[in-house]
Amino acid sequence: MDVARVRQDFPILEREVHGKPLVYLDNAATSQTPLAVIEAFDDYYRRINANIHRGLHTLADEATAAYEGSREIVRDFLNAAETREIIFTRGTTEALNLVAQSWGRANLGPGDEVLISNLEHHSNIVPWQLLAAERGFIIKVIPVDERGVLDMDAYRDLLGERTRLVAVNHVSNALGTINPVQEMARLAHEHGALILIDGAQAAPHLEIDVQAIGADFYAFSGHKVYGPTGVGVLYGRADLLEAMPPWQGGGEMIATVSFDVPTTFAAIPHKFEAGTPAVAEVIALGCAIRWIHEIGLKHISAWEERLLEHATEGVSNIEGLRILGTSPDKAGVLSFVVEGAHSQDIGLLIDQLGVAIRTGHHCAQPLLHRFGVEATCRASFAAYNTPEEVDIFVEALQRVIGMLR
Ligand code: PMP
């Protein structure tokens, strides 16, 4: 992969922070945006801006065509069988809440069980807790071992007649662990349960085939795949989506509305897209995926694997540094704690040297508690990062730790 060429697409990488060249290693939180995506916004608001689906005029037609074109790009990206299986949301969080509030509310009750894992982001925990408090089902948690790998024996034991849903992430945002979702889907289905996969951290790094995985639902966010904030995707199997009730009411999601007879709803995917969507963001997300295809996700993954190896090696010589998440299957994330130095202090000081990493609980408090910590430092990688940047990060980290001890 020609990383110098890739970097030219990201104007933000030219900026300085505190007088130092920016080294951006917070990609698991939000990835940076290539020119093609920035220009898509500019072009949309200069030439096309209109509300979609309802206008008969040229601009409305063009906006609708571009918006629906993105749906096809996303279908292809996930290898979904049909375009109507792709629902645009505000992000992964909204996609997961959609499944909880629509499918969950209709299908879960007392005696039912939902399996989540100890690796989950809060957005795949709290929607289930909120609903469980109302509907009276039970949430069970698949444990992880010392490496941050899901305990598959425990998973098999937890699956049972009462399991209705398994909700797990594909890649952990806090540790980088890649979960064996295909095998997990097979086992869930053997027990008559559905599987919902939170792909927020997988979509930027792995080729995803929802049909090969056997995913019933799959969610990801635009801003982690070089696209904009404010847009995300829920893939759902067509037969499931068709049977699910709407979760938000409003324009666009109806067939007919009446005070005299029951209101009827639009076909999928529109049934789940009430109101005016984030049209420009959806179109820009399509551009981001096109950009990924141009570089090649395989090349991006291989490159990031090299960066992760290089960084792991670099920090492993630092005394008192403990890496959390040592699964042999990892993507893009290096999470660590340092003896005698608070994660937050490291984050603040390393920023002074131009290096952006994340510190905190990464919205995965139960996971961090499993490892007996409240916070970690997390460096995460994207297509445009370089081994030289990793070296700057390791050197800066050593300096910062020296200052703190
Ligand atoms: N799940 C995982 C694994 C994530 O990493 C994130 C974002 N940090 C989310 C869900 C939530 O995504 P968003 O904030 O874009 O809705």
UniProtKB/TrEMBL annotation:
| GO BP term (any one) | cysteine metabolic process
**A single GO molecular function term of this UniProt record:** pyridoxal phosphate binding
Q: Which reaction does it catalyse?
A: (sulfur carrier)-H + L-cysteine = (sulfur carrier)-SH + L-alanine
Its needed co-factors are: pyridoxal 5'-phosphate
Q: Where in this chain does the record put each Aminotransferase class V domain?
A: 23-393
**Is NAD there in the keyword field?**
no
CDD domains reported for this sequence: SufS_like
Q: Transmembrane stretches, by residue range?
A: none
Tell me where on the tree of life, at the top rank, the source sits.
Answer: Bacteria
Instruction: Give UniProt keywords alphabetically.
Output: Pyridoxal phosphate, Transferase
Looking up NCBIfam families in the UniProt record yields: sufS
Sequence similarity: Belongs to the class-V pyridoxal-phosphate-dependent aminotransferase family. Csd subfamily.
Q: What protein name does the entry list? A: Probable cysteine desulfurase
Q: What is the lineage of its organism?
A: Bacteria, Pseudomonadati, Pseudomonadota, Gammaproteobacteria, Oceanospirillales
